[in-house]
Design brief:
The complex is a heterodimer. Chain A contains 14 helices and 13 strands. Chain A is an alpha+beta fold. Chain A has two domains: 171 residues, no CATH class; 174 residues, no CATH class. In chain A, strands 1, 2, 3, 4, 5, 6, 7, 9, 10, 12 and 13 form an eleven-stranded mixed β-sheet that branches. In chain A, strands 8-11 form a two-stranded antiparallel ribbon. The mean pLDDT of chain A is 86. In chain B, α4 packs across α5. By secondary structure, chain B is an alpha/beta fold. Chain B has a single domain, classed as Rossmann fold. In chain B, the strands form two sheets. In chain B, strands 6-7-8-3-9-10 form a six-stranded mixed β-sheet. Chain B starts with a strand and ends in an 8-residue tail after the last strand. The chains are: A alpha+beta, B alpha/beta.
């Protein structure tokens, strides 16, 4: 195989080659990132705890459950601890565009129910003692430069203070997480803080709790507990739906539609478009080189070499594009992971994803080179020399 | 002198517009080795077809073509390709150099098929370019050369593998008179000094006068063979 000729053919049309490489690069980069998002979502679901159940309103996640349910739930066999979870939905004042999840929880059962959470600085005990206290994830602390003792003003959007001022929370502890299902860009504070504010008329907002988290006793059957809880409230006043943590997360993600399927469709469409772009480039290259290939055949080069030159050229273009895409994806992985951490906690480019990107690029190269390659192989020397194409 | 090229009852037809066109019709022809032949005839007389058949670029419909000891009809396309790389050098009207390669790389191209090391290939290509007087243009791309220089590079490529037969299809068709004369003189030298058998298709009687003999084809049949010894131009 005249390798030098193959490379020179690619370099012979620098603009066209660069555009093709660029197109493949963008496509492979996008596919790798989309795949990493999909994998991240799966990792997050896979890492969900099996011994935690979540109880929500059967009507909608946006309808709160009565606070009286907490006491009733303690009577269910197999329930070891119960913790309220209330979405706060506030905005950090100093960062108008910033968003991170804040939840009101019960500090006492919360920490023992989430063993994947480890306090790395500050004191959880102090958090329990401080009505306006909060704990934050390490990524969140790093993002805003918050330290223990800092006061964080959060403007309520669901729960608003009547004086129009932001809620103020004191950072008591910072945690790290060993599970992608429990991310580090969250803030947790005492449910009692908003409950008291609502009761005393200092704030307005929905009463009750958005969710109840049930930590199961060792050996408890999740399905029996699920059934018992749902039956307990089957006749109201508010019917509930009890799910495992994984199922809850899956439903939460699917509120946006079938995200993984949508991402796959986008990736597939991009690849399809790029395949046609590369195929077009290679058909053009094959047509342009008809005479050259005829000369080579006249000199004694085989049909296989004629086809190989075009297939090799397509593979070289696609491999270069894929290599660049992988390099860019790896170099931007941390940034993308940080930006998407709130929504996709498990985002990571693993070897399988990169290998998939490279394989797809090579397949595009192979298939798009094959068509002009076969034509080049079939072309007789006399036809090629007369440019009968 | 033994026959380098021998054709017996060679017939070749093409179908054009649904009609069968017999381009070569039961052609018998013997060509001696180390002889420079010009092949002339009106358009459609079968000159290029004959050249393609002798060069193993195409198969005859019937008849036998013997080049030295090799029977071309018995070879498949792969064997013909291998045979061409060893036995034949081609020179085309449009030069047909590969534009992305330098003069030396173009000449090296057929040598890639020979069992030679890189340095041997390079040395052989440089020798061929020296022989055609382009030792100082080895690194130039075809677009950086004049038409005459391009054709001389093409001739260097044709002789790089040291084939016994050189087939040239209108090699001076795209050149001005002076440049054409230079190229023809070069072909004549290759015939005289290196004992190459040359078969050159041409429309130009002046170009033909550089050859030892002129074969005239007419409607796919052999018209006559002129001996040019009395009129032959000499370098």
């Amino acid at each position: 195989m005249p390798w030098k000729l193959l490379v020179r053919n690619v370099l012979g049309h620098p603009v066209r080659s660069l555009l093709t490489i660029g197109a493949v690069m963008v496509a492979v980069f996008l596919v790798c990132i989309l795949q990493a998002v999909t994998s991240g979502l799966s990792r997050s679901l896979d890492a969900s705890s099996a011994n935690r159940l979540l109880v929500q309103s059967a009507v909608s996640l946006f309808v709160n459950l009565p606070l009286s349910y907490q006491q009733k739930l303690t009577a269910v066999d197999g329930v070891d601890a119960i913790c309220k979870w209330q979405w706060f939905g506030g905005r950090y004042e100093q960062d108008k565009g910033g968003f991170f999840p804040q939840f009101a929880i019960d500090p006492e059962p919360f920490a023992p129910s989430y063993p994947e959470m480890t306090i790395t600085s500050g004191s959880y005990e102090e958090f329990k003692q401080t009505r306006t206290g909060c704990i934050i994830g390490e990524q969140l602390a790093q993002k805003y430069g918050w330290e223990i003792g800092d006061r964080v003003p959060i403007l309520g959007t669901i729960f608003t203070r009547v004086d129009g001022k932001p809620w103020e929370f004191v950072v008591n502890a910072i945690y790290e997480s060993s599970s992608p299902a429990f991310e580090e860009q969250q803030m947790f504070f005492q449910f009692a803080y908003i409950e008291e504010s609502l009761e005393q008329g200092g704030a307005t907002g929905p009463k009750g709790s958005g969710l109840y988290m049930l930590k199961l006793s060792d050996g408890a059957d999740p399905i029996s507990v699920q059934r018992a809880v749902d039956e307990m409230f089957a006749n109201g006043p508010q019917r509930v739906q009890t799910t495992t943590e994984a199922e809850f997360n899956r439903q939460f993600i699917s509120m946006l539609g079938d995200v993984p399927q949508l991402l796959r469709l986008i990736g597939g469409a991009v690849l399809f478009a790029i395949f046609f772009a590369v195929l077009n480039t290679m058909l053009l290259a094959g047509r342009e080189r008809t005479r050259d290939l005829g000369v080579m055949k006249a000199l004694g080069f085989s049909n296989g070499v004629a086809a190989g030159l075009l297939i090799g050229e397509a593979l070289l273009l696609c491999a270069t594009g894929a290599g660049l895409a992988i390099a860019i994806a790896l170099s931007t992985e941390e940034t993308i992971a940080a930006v998407t951490a709130t929504f996709i906690p498990g985002f990571a480019l693993d070897q399988g994803t990169l290998l998939m990107g490279a394989t797809i690029a090579l397949m595009i190269g192979l298939v798009s080179g094959l068509l002009p390659g076969i034509r080049a192989a079939r072309l007789t020397t006399t036809q090629a020399m007369q440019e009968i194409v | 002198m033994s026959a380098a090229i021998q054709l017996r009852s060679v017939t070749k037809s093409y179908t054009r517009g649904g009609e069968e066109l017999r381009v070569l019709d039961e052609l018998d022809l013997d060509m001696d080795e180390a002889t420079f032949y010009a092949l002339m005839g009106p358009s459609g007389s079968g000159k290029t077809t004959l050249l393609n058949l002798v060069g193993g670029l195409d198969h005859a419909d019937s008849g036998a073509i013997q080049i030295g000891a090799d029977d071309l009809a018995a070879m498949d396309s792969g064997e013909l390709a291998q045979w061409r790389s060893e036995q034949i050098g081609f020179v085309f009207q449009g030069f047909n150099l590969l534009p992305v390669l330098s003069a030396r790389e173009n000449v090296e191209l057929p040598l890639l098929l020979a069992p030679l090391s890189r340095s041997q290939r390079r040395a052989q290509a440089e020798r061929a370019l020296d022989l055609v007087g382009l030792g100082d243009r080895m690194g130039h791309k075809p677009r950086e050369l004049s038409g005459g220089q391009e054709q001389r590079v093409a001739i260097a490529r044709a002789i790089a593998t040291d084939p016994q037969i050189i087939l040239a299809d209108e090699p001076t068709g795209d050149l001005d008179r002076d440049t054409a004369d230079n190229v023809l003189e070069l072909l004549q030298r290759l015939n005289r000094e290196l004992q190459k058998t040359i078969l050159m298709v041409t429309h130009d009687p002046q170009a033909a006068s550089y050859a030892n003999k002129t074969i005239h084809l007419d409607k796919g049949k052999l018209g006559r063979i002129d001996d040019n010894s009395q009129v032959q131009r000499s370098s």
